[in-house]
Amino acid sequence: MKVLLVNGSPHKKGCTWTALSEVAKTLKKEGIESEIFWIGIKPLAGCTACRTCVKTGRCMFDDTVNEFLDIAKDADGYIFGSPVHYAAASGALTSFMDRVFYTDMLAGRQIFYLKPAAAVVSARRAGTTATFDQINKYFTISEMPVISSRYWNMVHGAQPADVEKDEEGLQTMRVLARNMAFFLKCKEAGLKAGVQLPVREERVFTNFIRD
Ligand SMILES: Cc1cc2nc3c(=O)[nH]c(=O)nc-3n(C[C@H](O)[C@H](O)[C@H](O)COP(=O)(O)O)c2cc1C
């Protein structure tokens, strides 16, 4: 089993990466493979609502969003990490996640369906819980079980060396990884034992219009 860890920071090996690496190390100890996927520093456009993905199954901007969608379909779980930028997720990660999840939905790929997910955030000081809430909203609209830890998944620091000293933050990452591993093993065991995936209803899409 494999978990994809997304680094939504402009720093390839910064504070967010340091937190994700602690998750990756612990997943390995639990027998779960992982890969850190960096969204990069090239400008990432937001979703233009062009709906190209309905026809092609891919985003019309051929960048790390399509690269990610191609490998994400084979992953069993996901962790999306972001630095806090003005008390929110980084603009790049927001554009990235908007396009990843919109393409997945409109193209009918359903690659995230009932796969566990978690958000990890890194801040020098504040804005962590708002960012955590923001990222979790992508999961809870996509039928993804959200894996939690012993605290909200955050680390603090301006530099990776600061994060290394954030003992509680790193412990939160390790607990998160073990809980993710436990869930993945339970899901696998359940499916092997014959537990069926839930019956799916046709989507009702009303825009609040009644008649
Ligand atoms: C544009 C920008 C905005 C930021 N806004 C905040 C903020 O609102 N709150 C905060 O605590 N840190 C803020 N920071 C600092 C980073 O969130 C923090 O240093 C983070 O741990 C860096 O992670 P990284 O090394 O993975 O990029 C900001 C940094 C940048 C570049």
TrEMBL record:
Any single Pfam family the record assigns to this protein: FMN_red
InterPro entries assigned to the protein according to its UniProt record, in alphabetical order: Flavoprotein-like_sf, FMN_Rdtase-like_dom, ISF_SsuE-like
Residue ranges of every copy of the NADPH-dependent FMN reductase-like domain listed in the record: 1-157
Keyword Ligase listed: no
Superkingdom, taxonomy of origin: Archaea
GO MF: oxidoreductase activity
UniProt keyword terms in alphabetical order: Flavoprotein, FMN
Cofactor(s) needed by this chain: FMN; [4Fe-4S] cluster
Assigned protein family: Belongs to the SsuE family. Isf subfamily.
Protein name: NADPH-dependent FMN reductase
Organism: Methanoregula boonei (strain DSM 21154 / JCM 14090 / 6A8)
Origin organism lineage: Archaea, Methanobacteriati, Methanobacteriota, Stenosarchaea group, Methanomicrobia
